Amino acid sequence: MVSSMPEKQLPFDPIERAGELWEEHFGDATAMRLATSVMRVQQLMLASLDGALKPFGLTFARYEVLVLLTFSRSGPLPLSKIGERLMVHPTSITNAIDRLEAQGLVERIPDPNDRRRTFAALTSEGKRIVTSATHALTEIDFSVDGLAMDDQESAYQLLRSLRRAAGDFTD
Amino acid sequence: MVSSMPEKQLPFDPIERAGELWEEHFGDATAMRLATSVMRVQQLMLASLDGALKPFGLTFARYEVLVLLTFSRSGPLPLSKIGERLMVHPTSITNAIDRLEAQGLVERIPDPNDRRRTFAALTSEGKRIVTSATHALTEIDFSVDGLAMDDQESAYQLLRSLRRAAGDFTD
DNA sequence: GTTCGATAGTAGGATACCCAACTAAATTGG
DNA sequence: CCAATTTAGTTGGGTATCCTACTATCGAAC
Does residue B3 lie within 7 Å of nucleic acid chain D, judged by its CB? Predict the structure, then answer.
């Protein structure tokens, strides 16, 4: 039995510990620990990022949509294009745009040339918010300040290999 | 299976591309790209792991609960202990145990010494399933076969630094 | 030009997660 | 010994994501 401590923070690395136990039962735990660690880091980082965005009424998912629209040279983007770029399900985009529209940060504009399509366009309020939100995220260094710059780059490259293997992009 | 919408593989790295565009607007994008990449890797890996577990009627979250119970030397664990170890919200554990119980993989057992507490215990069916499920996950190398063993270890250590910075554990 | 398959977006249902608030039970302190 | 606090677990509300299925529209083949 492990002692009952007043822990929010554990006095050991739980994933490390899980890995040890896992090995006793099932064999080498390297892959399992990495997978678990990815899940955990994402959970922590998302909580941190969402926390920083909360004052703006945004989640990281919706922030990403705003950023994408900010980049767009041609201005408004069809919803399908947004989903494709952010690699999320079309229904998730519909939901995100619903909320952003209700917040007055984006606008739906029907495509006159293809009446199936709908563009999403940033409002001036949306432009204002995305700038402030970006500043807030930069302040907390996107929650990756646990790593030095070059380690951030290393981590990015390693994760990139994982994405590629999972079929994220070609070439 | 990454299924949902990735029918479309992009001919470039969308995060790399987003980073470039982001830099033009907001400055150095290293941190932002790493954060985005973590989100994306988690999304892909989780889809892959969930896909492998689907035949067993499990999600990765519920698989983790079963594994934890398998490790436990003392057998049954109180729900609070499970949540603490897996670092998820108590309500998520309640939900997970509800489902696992409905599937006949775990059992709720009231603690006679502390009537607030409830233990979760693996059933024999649960033991059988966790072994098969683990085999299935090992088959796909926990979706991290995009990296060689030593790179997996490097990635794990880098992610560990991120977790520590986010306050995941002490020391 | 009419039919048929593909595409864009949405609606409804499911899962999973978190938070806030609640019930019940144990523990602590005066 | 009883009131106040703490702890364990659950319920209800909100968000995000995915899936299946549907409507509307476009485009192409016959």
Answer: yes
